[in-house]
């Protein structure tokens, strides 16, 4: 009989219960016990939901208070010295929160650990900080506690833990070369593996049969020593005596398939959504007694599964492998919303095309039952519903827009190249008259409760269009006056009218749909509600011009027009699966090109087109980079290529490594790029220095993901480091990212200090 299991489930709750509990605890409005009770209730609910779907094993250990890598880092006791953690005591939850966000209700505030993207997703993790001869220990009991919790509720459990090689690969340290492939980090295995073995021994002692160990780095181009380390690592872990399912996802294995040959693990999971062609190569190295888990339900998108196609893959293997065939989603379901049943306002046609985490478990159950000798009538009916929905989607007139397709075909002839930056910057400076070390922010200002209430009431019809516009104009004027008072040089309108930097634009573009409760976790308590791109993308009318023009009318200082770039809208949406992503991105670029030209015509002299997801979209395999970078750069330039020389184009990127794609970033040819550097202590500037990046750059000096307010001296020091690497006349001073999630008190204090830092730099 085919076994079904799940690699992970969303933690946040269908109504974002975890987010609300975390933020209440951080604010001092919820006790530690009440927070723990919320986590316990969510885990129990989600285990029950998964068990009810018929899973043979439910995942345990996939729940996290901030992110799953930070959970594991603290279990290993790998707490940086600045957090003053005793090596004799357990790591508590407040220490975990201080590592993630810089402060917690208890404990001394400290600089938060670096945060970056989880492979090519919009989920983030806190980067482990590594030091030579680092010692490890079991410093938290959360994994064992949750196993006991689930077992007490009657569930068959499969603990989920990050693999030792993936955890090391993701880690960073001053003593190690930059780049995840530094082989020197492998020396840390000597102290790390005994702790892993002890974890597995304790798990086995709890009566656990299988442990899922995630090694997604098997989807990367691994240096030889890292590939060779798998045999040693899993040979040692086998001594713990528990059965191991080695899980890889997000990409094809390619040459890393040979790593699996003879590896002492009892099972292997592969992602057949991202890499359907690797199945036969994996079968060729699969041991006679090893389980093969097939990821056939898409864990990263929201469309219904073609179960006939999935069945065609699984059926021959069911006869060959028997109970050694396991079925699962492609990866953890934390990347999709919790439950489609929470969507009461989606129209019936669109809703029939969708599948969220809960529904994907149903699809998994139907797929498994369809392989049996006598599938249940309910399964047969479900399969027919899937077929009908997929066919209706394919034939729907809502998907295709002839005008968009015709314009796309003609877009090859549109201008993309501006005059050289050295010539443009002269006319821009003549127009803008900016001082040395000009100051700006990334775009958004705090979204207050009043703003959210106004938006909610307007959408619900309780506030008229005129009243809503008046409320937003009032917010914009307050933000403009605040920035003038503080002394910023290039202002923003604050984005009070925007619910999200992607969702806002999707609501104004054709081809998009929206949910009410389709939340997914980005990091910590930060949740996003990605729009769904189901059809051709068109811009019926201007989206931002009126707000930007109003803001500019209030001040003589330049106000940036704020747009989200085509690649980021693509990456942070659930994208249609019936055409190449490149095609959808070009449609987005054409829509944004119209918006850019309308902003310019309205007198907006500075236009920022944010692309924080540019590197996130980079394929995991280097062989695929060239094609992606070509079309991603082209889409950005398609958006910006028609503006006049005096119009200054900015872009923003955050929490990314740039050294390996710096040529592509330069090819985007933005006049100014702002990047995250405060958590990484200006580390990212090395790429721009080595490349001799020719355009202006704003290295972030204020970490907006932490409530800590930076000192003036700290920011001056960061910029002085930057000035040693890059010409000072090319440097801007700005925060790491937008200020939407921050409070006004800390925002004002931080920006006052940031302007003071810029002034100090100008006169030294």
For the largest beta sheet, what order do the strands appear in spatially? 1-10-9-8-7-6-5-2
By oligomeric state, this entry counts as single chain
Q: Which stretches are low in confidence, meaning pLDDT under 50 for 5 or more residues running?
A: none
How many helices? The count is 27
Quote the average pLDDT: 95
Quantity of strands, as a count: 20
Question: Could you walk me through the main structural features you see in this protein, from its secondary elements to its overall organization?
Answer:
The protein is an alpha/beta fold. It folds into two domains: about 5-335 and about 350-395, TIM Barrel; about 425-760, TIM Barrel (Alpha-Beta Barrel). Helices cover about 40% and strands about 10% of the residues. It is built from 27 helices and 20 strands. The strands form five sheets. It has an eight-stranded parallel beta sheet with strand order 1-10-9-8-7-6-5-2. The chain has a five-stranded parallel beta sheet with strand order 15-17-18-19-20. A three-stranded mixed beta sheet has the order 11-14-16. The longest helix is centred in the middle third of the chain and has 22 residues, at about 465-485. The protein is globular and about 75 Å long. Pfam families: Meth_synt_1 (PF08267), Meth_synt_2 (PF01717).
Task: Quickly list its features.
alpha/beta; TIM Barrel; zinc; UROD/MetE-like_sf
């Amino acid at each position: 009989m085919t076994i079904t299991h799940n690699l992970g489930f969303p933690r946040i709750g269908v109504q974002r219960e975890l987010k609300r509990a975390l933020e209440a605890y951080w604010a001092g409005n919820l006790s530690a016990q009440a927070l723990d009770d919320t986590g316990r209730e969510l885990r129990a609910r989600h285990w029950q939901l998964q068990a009810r779907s018929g899973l043979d094993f439910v995942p345990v250990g996939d729940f996290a208070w901030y992110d799953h890598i930070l959970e594991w880092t603290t279990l290993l006791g790998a707490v940086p010295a600045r957090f003053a953690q005793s090596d004799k005591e357990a790591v508590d939850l407040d220490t975990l929160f201080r590592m993630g966000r810089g402060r917690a209700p208890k404990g001394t505030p400290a600089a938060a650990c670096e945060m970056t993207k989880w492979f090519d997703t919009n989920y983030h993790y806190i980067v482990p900080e590594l030091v030579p001869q680092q010692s490890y220990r079991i410093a938290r009991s959360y994994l064992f506690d949750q196993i006991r919790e689930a077992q007490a509720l009657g569930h068959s459990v499969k603990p989920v833990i990050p693999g030792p090689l993936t955890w090391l690969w993701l880690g960073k340290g001053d003593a190690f070369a930059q780049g995840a492939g530094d082989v020197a980090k492998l020396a840390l295995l000597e102290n790390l593996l005994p702790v892993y073995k002890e974890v597995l021994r304790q798990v086995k002692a709890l009566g656990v049969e299988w442990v899922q160990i995630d090694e997604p780095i098997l989807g990367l181009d691994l240096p030889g020593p890292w590939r060779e380390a798998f045999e040693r690592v899993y040979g040692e872990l086998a001594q713990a005596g528990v059965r191991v399912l080695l899980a890889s996802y997000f990409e094809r294995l390619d040459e890393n398939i040979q790593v699996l040959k003879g590896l002492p693990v009892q099972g292997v999971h592969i992602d057949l959504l991202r890499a359907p062609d690797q199945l036969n190569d994996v079968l060729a190295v699969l041991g006679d007694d090893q389980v093969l888990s097939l990821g056939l339900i898409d864990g990263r998108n929201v469309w219904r599964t073609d179960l006939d196609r999935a069945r065609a893959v699984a059926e021959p293997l069911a006869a060959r492998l028997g109970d050694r065939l396991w079925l699962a989603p492609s990866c953890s379901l934390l990347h999709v919303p919790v439950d489609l049943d929470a969507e009461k306002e989606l129209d019936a046609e669109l809703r029939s095309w969708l599948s969220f985490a809960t529904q994907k478990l149903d699809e998994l159950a139907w797929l498994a039952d369809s392989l049996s000798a006598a599938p249940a009538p309910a399964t047969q009916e479900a399969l027919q519903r899937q077929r009908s929905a997929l066919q209706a989607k394919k034939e729907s007139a809502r998907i295709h827009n002839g005008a968009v397709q015709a314009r796309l075909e003609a877009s090859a002839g549109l201008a993309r190249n501006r005059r050289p930056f050295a010539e443009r910057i002269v006319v821009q400076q003549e127009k803008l008259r900016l001082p040395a070390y000009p100051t700006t922010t990334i775009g958004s200002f705090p979204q207050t409760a009043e703003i959210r209430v106004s938006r909610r009431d307007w959408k619900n019809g309780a506030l008229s269009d005129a009243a809503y516009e008046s409320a937003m104009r009032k917010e914009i004027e307050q933000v403009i006056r605040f920035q003038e008072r503080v002394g910023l040089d290039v202002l923003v309108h604050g984005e009070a009218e925007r619910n999200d930097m992607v969702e806002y634009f999707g609501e104004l573009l054709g081809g998009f749909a929206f949910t009410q409760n389709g939340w997914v976790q980005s990091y910590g308590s930060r949740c996003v509600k990605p729009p769904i791109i189901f059809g051709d993308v068109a811009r019926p009318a201007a989206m931002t011009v009126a707000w930007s023009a109003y803001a500019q009318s209030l001040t003589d200082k330049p106000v940036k027009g704020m747009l989200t770039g085509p690649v980021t809208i693509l990456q942070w949406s659930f994208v249609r699966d019936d055409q190449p992503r490149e095609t959808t991105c070009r449609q987005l670029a054409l829509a944004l090109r119209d918006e850019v030209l309308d902003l310019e015509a309205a007198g907006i002299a500075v236009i920022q087109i944010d692309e924080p997801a540019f590197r996130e979209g980079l394929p995991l395999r280097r062989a695929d980079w060239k094609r992606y970078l070509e079309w991603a750069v082209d889409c950005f330039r398609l958006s910006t290529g028609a503006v006049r020389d005096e119009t200054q184009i900015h872009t923003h990127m955050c929490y990314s490594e740039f050294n390996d794609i710096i040529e592509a970033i330069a090819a985007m040819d933005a006049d100014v790029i702002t990047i995250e550097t405060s958590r990484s202590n200006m580390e990212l500037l090395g790429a721009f220095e080595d490349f001799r990046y020719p355009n202006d750059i704003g290295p972030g000096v204020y970490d907006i993901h932490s409530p800590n307010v930076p000192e003036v001296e700290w920011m001056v020091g960061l910029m002085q480091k930057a000035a040693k690497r890059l010409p000072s006349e090319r440097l801007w001073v700005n925060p790491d990212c937008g200020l939407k999630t921050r409070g006004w008190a800390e925002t004002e204090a931080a920006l006052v200090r940031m302007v003071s830092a810029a002034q100090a730099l100008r006169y030294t």
